[in-house]
Protein 1
Amino acid sequence: MGKKKMKGFAMLGFDTVGWIEKDVPEVGPLDALCKPLAVSPCTSDVHTVWERALGERSDLILGHEASAEVVEVGALVKDFKPGDKVIVPAITPDWCAVESQMGISQHSGGMLNGWKFSNMKDGVFADYFHVNEADGNLAHLPDEIDPVEAVMLSDMVPTGFHGAELAEVAYGETVTVIGIGPVGLMAVAGSVLRGAGRVFAVGSREKCREVAIGYGATDLIDYHDGDIVDQILDKTHGAYVDKVIIAGGDVNTFDQAVRMVRRGGIVSNINYLGTGDYIKIPRVEWGLGMGHIRIAGGLMPGGRKNMEYLSKLLVHGRLDVKPLLTHRFHKFEDLEQALLMMKDKTPDLIKPVVTLA
Ligand code: NDP
Ligand code: ZN
């Protein structure tokens, strides 16, 4: 008897996407097979396909943001069973790896290797997808959370919040968030939850700017209106900001970040740098290398614990992800349009989400 087949939306090669048929993945003793309830394309999928950021990939099913229903579990899975509704983190580390014991599970087994979906193996834009180490990498979806909203817990919330964590945002601090797409908006929300005083939000799309204010940004900056460092220092009367979170821009953005942050401040980066070979740091403003300005960049932490704790913010009304969901689709086939929207980004777009069940 032949293997059961499924349909998926894939990167066929550089610059090309399309529908393909593959075998339904097999489940090992610790793993799970899931079917998506709702999924969303990520800007990272765009970097991967159209900017060639990860290198060559062919017939790789895309997508790493999903809520799902468990269909099958391996013999050693303890806490999940078929029929359970789950949140699926974009990052699904190998929890036994040495790097996980070092606190950098994102890099379990190699640089960025905790990022498996749509990178090292087929992603979630399929009838079914495979989850490694299900007990560590799935989280039960609380009844109070709509599966469509839960998709934002896969990647946007943990990534934006990781930006605020890496920046160690503290009470009363002034924070600049460069880039206010969905990731930067969650960095604004995360900074505000951690107690930021003033938050500069840098971006130009009107919808994102409106939602940034809703999440607690105090000042809007448009990078088309001149150097953002000048604009911000003008508003602070020359005082440097405490922290900068980079969630947009490119390799040149670090120069601006270092020029606006105070001595001893932190620049955190959660942007996926899809192009360019080097990042330029301004020597003098970096204190000739001695300014105690830290630069930290990180992939979001995956895993069950993070998802379960972040989901409590939704359950208890501390965070509302609905403003991110600007475009809703209801058919699997609409995934293609949703991904192309992420590539082309109209002024009214934050995140498209596709409901499958
Ligand atoms: P968007 O493209 O929606 O947002 C990018 C933002 O950056 C927009 O606000 C845009 O402004 C702004 N921007 C663009 N160019 C500049 C510039 N030169 N100076 C200042 N701001 C600029 O992206 P997402 O929010 O979806 O994702 C952000 C990044 O996070 C992506 O690179 C994505 O791949 C990455 N990512 C990283 C993850 C991680 O684990 N670290 C996980 C998920 C995503 P405008 O309003 O004009 O569009
Ligand atoms: Zn992503």
Protein 2
Amino acid sequence: MKIGEILKRGVFSVSFEFFPPKTEEGERQLFETITDLKKLKPTFVSVTYGAGGSTRDRTRRVVKRIHEDVGLNVMAHLTCIAHGREDLIEILRDYDKMGIDNILALRGDVPRDRPDFRPPEGGCRYAVELVRLIRENFGDRFSVGVASYPEGHPESPNMEWEIRFFKEKVMAGADFSITQMFFDNSYYYEFVDLCQKSGIEVPVIPGIMPITNFRQIKKFASLCGATIPQSLIEKMEPVEDRPEEVEKIGVEFAIKQCEDLISNGVPGLHFYTLNRSRATLRIYEAIKDLVPVRDLSA
Ligand code: FAD
């Protein structure tokens, strides 16, 4: 089912993101997580893709299993910088045949040790080129999502730049966007406001990262430029070696964050699960009565 069409009908979207595990044990655990989260009737789930193309087969396998065996609506992430044009088309043809309807079109991070990195000849340097490639070769066969950054992508010098290139992706045919994680909703509200003023009309789904390991999240946040509020740092740092307390504070924080987002009319919530279900289940349980109508047949 195409996510863009679901969102157009005004259905509130709830979605979960997973990464393709490296081991059989990891995959077993992931499918346990997916079984737990399936009970929440997600609008879609998504599976990440390694920027260097390293997860090509694993991403495909997990996407196929979720689609065929679990029966959930799936969005496959696809990063373009490591692939040539023909490779990208081949990957997309395969998803087309498999019956996958949704692609998150991404650039991927440029390898840190190779700032002069260029994609293979004829490949895509930015995500906008991948969006164009999909629309030129597959028309409306897929609903296409793109990433957006309420605090700005680390390579963007300012928000004007950020909006300019986000808008390019939308003009090229993206139907919706999912944001980078953020912990201060005011960045999201300001970003959506800037989008509206710039004529960007696609739904921007906030990406929520439940904190279960504060050290890990501090590292992620500094890499992607997400600000962690000082008040949260002060609560987390004294307990960062006590996982249960970290998760308790993280879940309480995410519940408040989601309540505020819902009351401000967001089009959905996308949870970065890190392949674990417990924190997301606890958050959803607390907010479920606030979540607007989610009937896909409505
Ligand atoms: P782009 O939209 O191409 O933007 C990258 C930077 O280039 C921005 O600063 C932008 O302003 C700038 N830019 C764009 N076009 C131009 C232009 N024409 N000229 C100059 N500058 C330009 N990474 C993975 O490896 N795998 C995943 O599965 C994955 N999933 C993600 C899911 C979400 C929801 C999000 C938010 C991010 C995800 N990422 C993933 C991370 C993403 O790949 C990185 O943030 C990457 O550095 C940028 O990707 P992008 O698609 O946003 O790139």
